[in-house]
Design a protein that fits this description.
The protein has 5 helices and 7 strands. It is an alpha+beta fold.
């Protein structure tokens, strides 16, 4: 068990966070679709900035035993306690060692008033789907796709942007 800590990021630190998100989230898109980072539309700065600059969001660097291992953006609704995991990543050299589950448990403990956690993940992200459903106890509650569009998001025309699952986890109070 590693000691998990969170360091709240300041706005001047967002560029490094954004770079990490783009690099790590691009890996599976490149592997799945044969694209390269130069193709450009894998993940846009504007998509990341929606979370980074949302006043309800809290952005953290994640540390395990004082070593930076990833980052997270959490959208916290203090009124409803229906919270969102907007962005979450762990550096690839730390995958497959149980760290993600330990970090997720630390997030749950950090926000004990949460009634429901929500998140989205692309349809092809089998590793994420396995993690959230089988390791963290989330349930898939909706699948947005060409036949069932998300009314809150514009259509990008790229399947990996337009087809994704919504997950929820109800917390025991």
């Amino acid at each position: 068990m590693e000691n998990i800590t969170f360091k709240r990021l300041e706005e001047w630190e967002y560029s490094e966070f954004r770079k990490d998100v783009k690099n790590i989230f691009s890996i599976s898109v490149i592997n799945e679709f044969g694209l390269s980072k130069e193709d450009g539309n894998i993940i846009l700065d504007e998509d990341i900035d929606i979370s980074l600059y949302n006043p309800q969001c809290e952005t953290y660097a994640i540390y395990a035993d004082d070593e930076r291992v990833g980052g997270v953006v959490l959208r916290i609704d203090g009124d409803t306690h229906y919270n969102w995991l907007d962005l979450f990543y762990i550096y690839p050299n730390r995958h497959g060692k149980g760290l993600g589950r330990q970090i997720w448990r630390s997030i749950e403990l950090k926000y004990p008033q949460t009634k429901v956690w929500r998140l989205i993940t692309p349809y092809f992200e089998k590793r994420n789907i396995h993690f959230y459903v089988n390791k963290c106890g989330f349930k898939i509650v909706e699948f947005f796709n060409k036949a069932h569009r998300d009314p809150n998001r514009p259509i990008s025309g790229l399947s990996f942007h337009d087809e994704y699952f919504v997950f929820e986890k109800e917390m025991m109070m």
